Here is the input.
Amino acid sequence: MNTVILASHSPRRYDLLAQTGLHVIVKPSHIDEIQNPGESIHDFVTRISKEKVLAVKNTLDPNESKNYPMIGADTLVYLNDTIYSKPTDIDDAKRILSELNGQIHTVITGYAIYNPHEKNMISGFSETNVKFKKMTEDEINWYLSTGESMGKSGAFALQGHGAFMIEWVHGSYTNVVGLPLDKVITILLDKKMIHLY
Here is the structure.
C-alpha cells in the first residue's frame, strides 16, 4: 500500500490525499507560522511547509521516517500584498470577506515533500486566482452564520457553503482547498516514493 505521512491536522488535505487512494498517516506539526521581516509570501509558505515536515520528522520512529514520504503544506490568501490568514473571530472573518468581496484574489499553497529514499526535501508552491462575486451584506452574514469561515485562510471554503460566492477559479482547484495535487502526486510518482497500482 502506498503510504504517506501528512504533517498537518487539516482534514481537507487528508481528504485530498486519501481520495487518490493513498494511505495517509496524520502527524500534525506544531510550529509558529510567523512571516519574517522582508520575507516574500512565496518564500514564507515554502519555508513553513518545510518546517512542518522537519518538525514531524524529528518526532518519528526511525522506521516511519525511513520508509514513508512526508508532506507539509501551508495555504494563504492574498490581495495586493495583504495576507488574509485564518480569522481570529467572527468580526475578523466579516472584515476579510468584505475586503475580498467582488475581488480577484490569489490563493497560494507552499508544499514540501521529504523523500526518504534520497533523504532530501522537494519544495515549491502553487498559485490560483479566485474571483468572488459581489455579495450583499445579507449574503456575507448568512455565510458567517454557517461557521465555515473559522479556521480557513481567507475566511472561506471553496468546497463547502462558500462555493456560492465563487464566480471563477483560474488554476488548480485542489490548491485552493489546501494542497495542489497536480504537483504533489507528480513529484511522488516521479521520485518513485509511491507507485501506480
